[in-house]
Design goal:
The complex is a heterodimer.
Chain A: E1 12-17, E2 27-34, E3 37-45, H1 51-55, H2 62-66, H3 75-90, H4 96-122, H5 137-144, H6 150-158, H7 162-170, E4 179-180, E5 183-184, H8 190-213, H9 217-220, H10 226-235, H11 237-241, H12 243-254, E6 266-268, E7 271-273, H13 286-289, E8 290-292, E9 295-297, E10 302-303, E11 310-313, E12 324-325, H14 337-342, E13 351-356, E14 360-362, H15 368-374, H16 389-396, H17 401-425, E15 442-450, E16 453-462, E17 465-472, H18 474-479, H19 490-495, H20 507-516, H21 532-538
Antiparallel strand pairs in A: 1-2, 2-3, 4-5, 6-9, 7-8, 9-10, 11-12, 11-13, 13-14, 15-16, 16-17
Chain B: E1 2-8, H1 14-20, H2 27-32, E2 36-40, H3 50-60, E3 68-72, E4 75-76, E5 87-88, E6 91-92, H4 93-101, E7 106-110, H5 112-116, E8 129-130, E9 134-135, E10 138-139, E11 156-158, H6 165-176, H7 192-195, H8 206-210, H9 253-256, E12 283-284, E13 288-289, H10 298-310
Parallel strand pairs in B: 1-2, 1-3, 3-7, 7-11
Antiparallel strand pairs in B: 4-8, 5-6, 9-10, 12-13
Classes of the chains: A alpha+beta, B alpha/beta.
Chain lengths: 544, 323
C-alpha cells in the first residue's frame, strides 16, 4: 500500500484522514485536494450498532431505555424526544410541572455540553502549532492547552455542575429514564429547587460571566447584530479579554471566519414547550407550543417545520437498496460494507433530507447555528424566543467555523436565564404525572434539540409492541452522505474550498468537523473503511 | 508514570461523559497529580489521523509500554464475524483491541457494553456485539475464559450503564499508585468494594420496603413508597453502590423515583425489554413478585410480606418526601 498523503506530481492528490478524533465517535473523512485546496469530500461513518433493529418487537417504552444509549453525550435529549414520541402515540396528558422539569433537564444537559465541548474538544485544536505566529497564540495556549490550560481545567470541571441539576430531578446523568409518558417520575421538594438555583448561579459566577463573557448574561444578549458584537468587543477590556472576546479576535486572525460555511440552509426541530400549551401533546400541535421555535431557512426564506416532509435517503449508505423514505416507512437493513462499496455506498449514516416546498429534497445543517438562525424568524409570540443576532451575522459576514462556534457559546447565556425562570414556575403542590392509558396501537413523533441539533423519533406501536422505530440524529443530518441526486451532506459541503496547510496534519478539517460537534456515536449507523485495493484505486483522483 | 490507552468499540461514549464528571479526583487531577499518562483517548487527545496510527504501531512494536488498556463499548464482530461493522484505519476495531489486550499489564472494561455486551447485544444483536470476557452472564466473551493480562489478572469489570466516575477513577488510581492488590474482584470480576452491596443499600425508600408499602404511581406518587412492588425496581437484586456513592454528588435513580433497571448486572437489559416488562414488576399468581431479594424465594418472601403489611405503622401509608 502506498503511504497516504504522498504528494503526486500532478498536484492532484487525495488523502484519507482517519479518525478525526474529538468528534466523539468514528469518522473518516476522505478529501480530494487540488493545489492545496479541498475540491471534494466524503464523510464516512464507521460503526453500526443497529438500535432501530433492537427496538422492533420490544415494549413500547423500550425507547426510553434504549435510545439514550445511542449517544451518551446527548442521552437526555434522546430521552426527551423518546418520551414525546410516546406522549403523542398514547395521547397522554402532561401536567405543566412535568413540562417544566423536562425543559430544565434538557437545558441542563445542553449547558453542560457547551463548556465541555468548547474546552475539551474544540479549543485545544486552536493551540495547534500552525498558529504559532499569531500574536494571540501564547495567550490561547495559556488558557486552552489540554490539561495544562488555566481555563481548560475550569471549563471541564464546571461542565459537571449543570448535570447535577439533571440528577436532582432525574437521579443521575448520563442515562436516566426519568421522563415517562404522562410526565416525570420525580416529585421535587423545596431543597431540590433551592439547590438547583444555587448550582445554576455557581455556573454563572464561576464560568459563564467570569470566564466566557466578561459581562452579565443579560448584557451579552443585548447584542442584536454583528456590529453590536464588534462594539461590545471594544466597550470594555473585560469583553475583549474574555474567552469569547479572545475567541472572536483569534478566529479573525487565523481565518476561522473564512471557511467551513456549510450549506447555508438550516433546520431546527425546536425545543422546550410552553407548559400550558402542550398539556395534550400531538404531532399537529407541536410547532405552536415550542418556546425555541422549529423551522427551515432555505438561504432566503423561512418555512414552517413539518415532520411529514422529512426523508431518509440511503443510496450511498450501507443499507440494502437505494430508496428515500419517510421515517414511518423507514428501513434499516444493513449490508456488509465490502458489498456496499461495490454499489458506491460509503457510510453507515443515512442522508436525511427535507422536502422544501418549491425546492425539493434538500440537505440541511442542524445545530446551534441552525437554531439561532431560526430564532431570528419574525412573528414570534411574546413567550417564544426571538433573537435576530445570528440571522444578521450570516447575512453580514456569512456562516463559518467561527460563527457556528459563537452560536453554541451564545446559547449558554440564553438557557441559563430560561432555566432560572422555569425553576421559579414549578408548583411543588401540583401534579408531576398523570397516569396514561397504554394504547396497544398508535403512531408517535417526538423531537427536540440536542446540543448538536435536531433529534427525532418516529414510533409505530402494534399489538402492544414496537412495530417500527426510527431515529434521526443531528449527526446524521450533518454528517450524512450524498443522496440519490448527488447532493453532498452538510459537512461534506463545508469541507469544499478549504485551504490545507499540511496534508499530513490537516487541522483545518478537524476544526470544521468539530465546529459541528457531530458525535458519530450519535448516528445510529456507521461505516467500514475501504479495503486497500479500493483505496489504491482512489489514491489519485482525476479532476477534469 | 503509567501509560493508559482508552479504546472505544461499540460505544455511546456515556462512560467517557460520566468519567468527565469525576470530582475527587477530577480527570485532570488523574493526569497532573496521579501520574496517569493518557496515550490516547478519543475525546481528550490532541492527536488524530496519522499520529494515532503511529502511536498504535509503537505500542504494538513494544516501543511504548502499555500499562492500562481501558475499553469502553462492545466488541463488534458483525457481520458474520468479520468486524466490518466497526473499522479503524482499515482494520476491524476488534483486531486492534485484541492486540492491545495482549500487550497490556491490566485490562479494564468500563461500562456494561465492554463488560457484558450491554444494550447493543440485546436480541437480535444486529452488530454481533460481545463483552471483553463475558457475553451477558456467560464467561468467555471476546478474549476467552483463559485470558490474563500481562500482570496476570483477568479483565477488571467496572459495569454500569454508565459506570459511575468514582468507580473508574479509584480503580485507575489504585493501579497507578501500586495499590492494585487492594482490589479484590467478585465472581463477575467486579471490584467487590463497590459491588458487594445492593443498590437498595442506602436507598431512602428502604423504610417503605420494610413495611411493604408500594409507590402507587410516578410523579407525586413517589412522595412515599417503594418502587419494588409495582414499578419493577431491581434495587434489592442488583449489586451497586448507587445509594452509597451518589450520582453527580446529588442523588440516585431510586431516590428520584425511577426504578432501578439493574444496569450493573450482566443480564441488563432484563427480559430483553419484552412487551410488558418495562417499569412493571413481574409477578407470579398475580400478586407475588417473581423476583425477590437475593437468597429469598417468592413463597417465604410473601409470607414475610403479609406479616409486615399487617403490622405496619400508620406513617408507612403517608407521604414522607413532601415539599
Amino acid at each position: 500500500m502506498k503511504k497516504q498523503g504522498t504528494i503526486v506530481k500532478t498536484n492532484k492528490m487525495e488523502i484519507k484522514v482517519h479518525s478525526l478524533g474529538r468528534v466523539e465517535g468514528d469518522l473518516d473523512v476522505k478529501v480530494a485536494i487540488e493545489d492545496g485546496v479541498v475540491v471534494d469530500a466524503w464523510t464516512e461513518a464507521t460503526m453500526f450498532r443497529g438500535f432501530e433493529m433492537i427496538l422492533k418487537g420490544k415494549d413500547p417504552q423500550a425507547g426510553l431505555i434504549v435510545t439514550p444509549r445511542i449517544c451518551g453525550i446527548c442521552g437526555g435529549s434522546h430521552l426527551t424526544k423518546a418520551v414525546y414520541a410516546l406522549d403523542t402515540a398514547w395521547g397522554t396528558e402532561v401536567p405543566p410541572n412535568a413540562t417544566l422539569i423536562r425543559n430544565i433537564a434538557q437545558a441542563a444537559e445542553t449547558i453542560q455540553s457547551i463548556p465541555r465541548w468548547f474546552y475539551a474538544l474544540f479549543a485545544i485544536g486552536l493551540t495547534h502549532r500552525n498558529y504559532a505566529s499569531s500574536k494571540l497564540y501564547d495567550e490561547v495556549v495559556r488558557r486552552w492547552a489540554p490539561f495544562e490550560g488555566e481555563h481548560y481545567e475550569i471549563g471541564v470541571t464546571v461542565s459537571a455542575k449543570p448535570v447535577e441539576i439533571y440528577a436532582i430531578f432525574g437521579g443521575q446523568w448520563p442515562h436516566s429514564s426519568f421522563m415517562v409518558p404522562g410526565g416525570v417520575v420525580s416529585a421535587p421538594t423545596l431543597s431540590d429547587i433551592t439547590r438547583s438555583i444555587s448550582i445554576l448561579e455557581y455556573y454563572r459566577e464561576n464560568w459563564l460571566e467570569k470566564i466566557l463573557l466578561g459581562c452579565s448574561a443579560e448584557r451579552w444578549l443585548e447584542n442584536k447584530t454583528w456590529d453590536d458584537v464588534l462594539a461590545w468587543l471594544d466597550e470594555k477590556p473585560e469583553h475583549r479579554d474574555s474567552d469569547l472576546g479572545l475567541f472572536i479576535r483569534y478566529s479573525m486572525e487565523i481565518g476561522l471566519d473564512k471557511y467551513g460555511a456549510g450549506p447555508g440552509r438550516y433546520l431546527a426541530a425546536g425545543s422546550f414547550f410552553n407548559p400550558q400549551r402542550y398539556r395534550y401533546p400531538t404531532i399537529a400541535g407541536r410547532n405552536a407550543a415550542l418556546i425555541s421555535r422549529s423551522g427551515i431557512f432555505d438561504g432566503e426564506k423561512f418555512h414552517d417545520f413539518d415532520q411529514a416532509r422529512i426523508r431518509e435517503d440511503h443510496t450511498h449508505s450501507f443499507y440494502r437498496g437505494s430508496g428515500s423514505y419517510h421515517p414511518f416507512e423507514g428501513l434499516t437493513d444493513p449490508v456488509d460494507p465490502i458489498e456496499g462499496r461495490k454499489e458506491g455506498k460509503y457510510t453507515f449514516a443515512k442522508a436525511p433530507r427535507y422536502d422544501i416546498p418549491g425546492i425539493g429534497e434538500t440537505p440541511l445543517e442542524v445545530g446551534p447555528l441552525a437554531r439561532q438562525v431560526i430564532a431570528g424568524r419574525p412573528g414570534a409570540e411574546e413567550w417564544q424566543d426571538y433573537d435576530p443576532l445570528f440571522l444578521n451575522m450570516i447575512k453580514e459576514i456569512g456562516p463559518s467555523v467561527m460563527v457556528r462556534v459563537l452560536a453554541r457559546l451564545h446559547e449558554a447565556a440564553k438557557y441559563y436565564l430560561r432555566m432560572k425562570e422555569w425553576l421559579k414556575q414549578i408548583d411543588l403542590n401540583e401534579k408531576f404525572y398523570i397516569k396514561p392509558k397504554e394504547l396497544p396501537e398508535g403512531r408517535g413523533f417526538g423531537a427536540t434539540e440536542a446540543a448538536r441539533g435536531a433529534l427525532a423519533d418516529w414510533i409505530q406501536i402494534k399489538d402492544g409492541k414496537i412495530e417500527n422505530y426510527q431515529v434521526i440524529t443531528p449527526t446524521a443530518w450533518n454528517i450524512g452522505p450524498r443522496d440519490r441526486h448527488g447532493q453532498r451532506g452538510p459537512i461534506e459541503t463545508a469541507m469544499i474550498g478549504v485551504p490545507i496547510k499540511n496534508p499530513e496534519d490537516p487541522v483545518e478539517l478537524a476544526h470544521i468537523a468539530q465546529s459541528y460537534d457531530s458525535c458519530l456515536v450519535c448516528t445510529v449507523h456507521a461505516y467500514d473503511a475501504k479495503s486497500h485495493k479500493e483505496l489504491a484505486k482512489y489514491e489519485v483522483i482525476k479532476m477534469c | 508514570m503509567v501509560n493508559l490507552l482508552w479504546m472505544h468499540g461499540g460505544a455511546c461514549n456515556g462512560n467517557t461523559q460520566s468519567f468527565l464528571n469525576a470530582e475527587e479526583p477530577t480527570v485532570i487531577d488523574l493526569v497532573t497529580d496521579f501520574g496517569i499518562n493518557i496515550l490516547y483517548h478519543h475525546s481528550l487527545s490532541m492527536e488524530f489521523g496519522e499520529q494515532v496510527r503511529r502511536l498504535y504501531e509503537q505500542i504494538l512494536n513494544d516501543e511504548i509500554p502499555l500499562d492500562i488498556l481501558v475499553v469502553e463499548g462492545t466488541i463488534i464482530q458483525g457481520p458474520n464475524g468479520t468486524g466490518h461493522y466497526d473499522m479503524l484505519m482499515d482494520r476491524p476495531k476488534k483486531d486492534w483491541i485484541w492486540d492491545f489486550a495482549h500487550k497490556a499489564q491490566y485490562v479494564v472494561a468500563i461500562g456494561d457494553c465492554a463488560c457484558w455486551g450491554g444494550i447493543p447485544a440485546t436480541k437480535p444483536n444486529p452488530s454481533e456485539s460481545i463483552g471483553l470476557q463475558y457475553m451477558k452472564e456467560e464467561r468467555g466473551g471476546f478474549l476467552g475464559t483463559q485470558f490474563r493480562s500481562k500482570a496476570g489478572l483477568p479483565v477488571i469489570n467496572i459495569p454500569g450503564c454508565p459506570a459511575h466516575p468514582d468507580w473508574v477513577t479509584q480503580i485507575l488510581v489504585a493501579i497507578a499508585t501500586g495499590r492494585v492488590e487492594d482490589v479484590v474482584l467478585d465472581d463477575l470480576q467486579r471490584p467487590q468494594t463497590f459491588f458487594k452491596t445492593f443498590t437498595q443499600t442506602g436507598c431512602t425508600r428502604v423504610q417503605y420496603f420494610e413495611w411493604k408499602e408500594p409507590v402507587e404511581e410516578f410523579g407525586q406518587g413517589t412522595r412515599k413508597g417503594c418502587l419494588f412492588y409495582e414499578q419493577g425496581c431491581r434495587g434489592p437484586m442488583t449489586h451497586s453502590p448507587c445509594n452509597r456513592i451518589l450520582w453527580n454528588r446529588q442523588s440516585s435513580k431510586t431516590r428520584a423515583g425511577m426504578p432501578c433497571i439493574g444496569c450493573t448486572e450482566p443480564q441488563f437489559p432484563f427480559f430483553d425489554l419484552a412487551p410488558g416488562t418495562v417499569f412493571k414488576t413481574q409477578k407470579v399468581l398475580g400478586s407475588i413478585p417473581k423476583e425477590v431479594p437475593q437468597g429469598s424465594d417468592p413463597f417465604s418472601y410473601s409470607v414475610n410480606a403479609a406479616l409486615a403489611r399487617a403490622v405496619a405503622p400508620k406513617w408507612a401509608k403517608e407521604d414522607m418526601f413532601v415539599p
